[in-house]
Amino acid sequence: MYKNILLLLILSAVLYSQTKSSVFNIKDFGAKADGTTLNTEVIQRAIDSCSATGGTVLFPAGKYLTGSLVLKNNVALFLSKGAVILGSTNLNDYHEHKPELQSYNDNFLKYSLFYAEKAENISIEGEGTIDGQGGAFKVKTKKKPERYENRPFVIRFVECKNVSIKNINLVNSAMWMEQYLACDGLYIKGIKVFNHANQNNDMMDIDGCRNVIISDCTGDTDDDGITLKSTSPYSVQNVVITNCIVSSHCNAIKIGTESTGDFKNISISNIVVKPSSVKKVIYGFPEGISAITLTTVDGGTIDGVTISNINIDGPEVPIFLRLGNRARKYKEDESLPGVGEFKNVSINNIIARNVKSIGCSITGIPGHNIENIALSNIRINYSGGIDKGNYKDAVPELENSYPESTMWGNLPAYGFYIRHVKNISFNAVEVNYIKPDIRPVIICNDVDELSLSGLIAECDSNADSFLRFDDVTNSKINNTECTTKTKLFLELRGDKNSNIKLIGNDFVGFQKICNVQKGIMLIDGNLK
């Protein structure tokens, strides 16, 4: 019995010793928690020592000023409650890091507070705060790349594996708050981001990463919120984003803009998009530019995206889908990319209120359609108030323009403007407005295989039509209800409209069903 007790005591002592040795308290390395002493060298020594055996670098309560730090294999940074890491406001305290992997960012994104490249099993966790003090890095010119290159990220990890960022507070970056480039196995949970210190103040940028889970996060940023992009040939694949609250002066949930690589197998759910608590705007609008933006314009493919259970309050545009041809190269010696692809996207269970009057848009470009789009159980309440003269009926293609939901101004349809699309369905979609709006609910231009089922919408009595089709083929409109009638249910333009079926719709109160009969099939069940 005594031998067993002795063995247990010895084992406990060994385990305690191992646990104690795996924790590297930065104060033991000489760190000063006064907020003014530069601790870069001593913190880096703690990280290097930790990496040799694996373990945790501990930041006790206090304020620690530091410049660039490099995370290494098997290192977990833990910020205790009350611990604040302050990024130095002196650019000389930051090291330049140009990763081996080439990307579009190489020309101008040099500095970061926390940097890692090809590291494995790294994490930043705890209840403390990282404050980039980004307001100290003034933008002195509007020229590229000068307006970017002297502003540090807070976090930039490149080609890392098994990365965890949990529960910490991130505030005041001089640039993007976080960029994860070509990482594999990225887990971000429970973080809080507040980023209104400077230009380009994104919440997080997931760039060419694979196997990513983002959950239970909140963010309030001047620039984009949760952003998936590809600035190199690496694709964004196998991503889950869920249970987050996002406020942005720009785009809350965004895929694309930079889109060299592909975006595949992405699931986004249970997101609240609400207005920022900050009314002063550097970019965008106080309530935001868009809630959901999906774009590919640099040759990449969007394929397999599901978006569900999104509650939207306030932005200019709730939904923006765009296939374009900006054709930006990720490095100078590359050939111009071809036009990408955009297909297989499902958006359902969306409530949007207090959104502005521009309208949603789903647009490809001539010869390159967006394909296989399903929208269901969507309710949007627009502000309305648009009369003739407040929008342009002809919408330019703008194939090579920066993809932004406001790029055309007020669209000629108040609900959805759809162009260059193949196989799109609307099921149980309801749209209305606060103030009368003269525009049709939906305009379709160069669309093949359209299904409108269970559409419920308002339409001003002075509007030219409820719906408008221009060169639409193989479409079906059934069980559609206009809650306020106008003179014409469906206006056809162009000479390529064909095989348009009207089934079980409510035409009571319309002066006319359609302006022409060619290409229209009235099926039994329509109310007249």
Word description of this protein:
The protein is mainly beta. The protein has a domain at 442-528. The protein contains three helices and 38 strands. The chain has a 38-stranded parallel sheet that branches. The longest helix is centred in the first third of the chain and has 20 residues, at 2-21. It is elongated.
Q: Which structural traits does this protein have?
A:
mainly beta, 528 residues
> What Rg is obtained from the alpha carbons, in whole angstroms?
27 Å
Terminal Cα separation, in Å?
94 Å
Treating each run of at least 4 consecutive H or I residues as one helix, how many helices? 3
Estimated helix fraction: under 10%
Largest sheet: 38 strands, parallel
Total DSSP E strands: 38
From the spread of the alpha carbons, the general shape counts as: elongated
Q: Average pLDDT across residues? A: 93
